[in-house]
């Protein structure tokens, strides 16, 4: 259960909404139970009055009060159910927002190495199915369980008031056992199965995605049919375990209903004894048993929720493990830098976990407004050094201090969104005029001016609607829009021909005026203007 603790703490940060949502669920349940109880009382009262009148005995019945109560509870049940669905689903969406923001905040502080430990299919599973298992934790598990306990207590109190304390104790005992069977009993019987099934479902989803991604290679190797057959076997195993879990949940649900019905029979038997003694009227006699039968609706939602609790805990464990915050050396704040210094690397080592260091005893000091070029061949460690300077890779030893920076990575990263949305990541407050001006500098204005949607042109998955050079210039424009005083550029002109590269490099002189620039490339012709150049060997 400790795996759920950080997510429960996150959910409980909205106590007001949780209380209101719980009240709406409680009002819905009580309206339903009251509707059944009053209807049973009214039908019994009507039948008895009819029998007395048929026997020639004078009898009367008030049709208006119970009739009005029945209409009231029927309407209130419908209204509260509607309000509960609207309000609690809105709450769930807010909780989903909180969970995803928290999750992405963790991931943003993780190193590239950590994020690279899982495949794209596994991250997709984390961000979809694992998150989905947590976002309904309140609505599916917490609220129903708490309210089932509260409603049970209210019914036991009603039994003590209408009948006697002995009957209330016996009914309460049966209901407590029923509640335990529907919750703790289901969890103990299914948590291992559910957790194992959750892991296997993730493995199956990952395998299916990889099958689709590698379909061409499988076809070329003649392995499509065999791999598909293997997937079917895995799917059959998952469904078999699901059937086993569902069977256990079903038996516990049946046992819960049996205990609730036994409590109703017990209340009826005890009420009949009190009726014979003349201390209880016939209509009141049936009121409690019918109210107890109404508890079946309250308990019915619990076994399924607790049957999935093991899978929910497994999802939380995966998220806690793969998205945990790392203890990493923080980059010093800019006020700790020496005066007029933008970046200071003192005796740092660049190293990936599990591998030998790429650099040791690396020192670099850059004054404000200076432009440094770093050259090295493939494999010399340029990108790893850039990751360290930008704070994406922790310093293995030594210390690093720098001003706020913006970083153009070697890999061009565009999101499946509009051109405007991708550019505004660099400067959320930028106006359309500023965006068009930057596109003009990158020689992209004419390209998008001819598009029907212009700035709202959809770029496709990872910028698939653009050529490699166009995508690189969009990413470069996004970086240059950012007001950060330190700019780190790793291979800024990838995919550009020599003439285009030369023209854009000249324009960047004014765009980068007053900023400190660290640019990395294979050759000097791939660098913007620099004050000095550092050569990496190795």
UniProtKB/TrEMBL annotation:
Domain ABC transporter stretches: 343-538
Gene Ontology CC, one term: plasma membrane
Keywords: ATP-binding, Membrane, Nucleotide-binding, Transmembrane, Transmembrane helix
Membrane topology category: Multi-pass membrane protein
UniProt entry tagged with the keyword Repressor: no
Alphabetized Pfam families for the sequence: ABC_membrane, ABC_tran
Protein's GO biological process: cell redox homeostasis; glutathione transmembrane transport
Gene3D superfamilies attached to this UniProt entry: ABC transporter type 1, transmembrane domain (1.20.1560.10), P-loop containing nucleotide triphosphate hydrolases (3.40.50.300)
Domain ABC transmembrane type-1: 19-311
Molecular function in Gene Ontology: ABC-type transporter activity; ATP binding; ATP hydrolysis activity; ATPase-coupled lipid transmembrane transporter activity
Subcellular location per the Swiss-Prot or TrEMBL entry: Cell membrane
Top-rank lineage group of the source organism: Bacteria
TM annotation in the entry: 20-43, 49-74, 141-163, 169-188, 258-278, 284-302
Name of the protein: Thiol reductant ABC exporter subunit CydC
Originating organism: Marinobacter flavimaris
Primary gene name: cydC
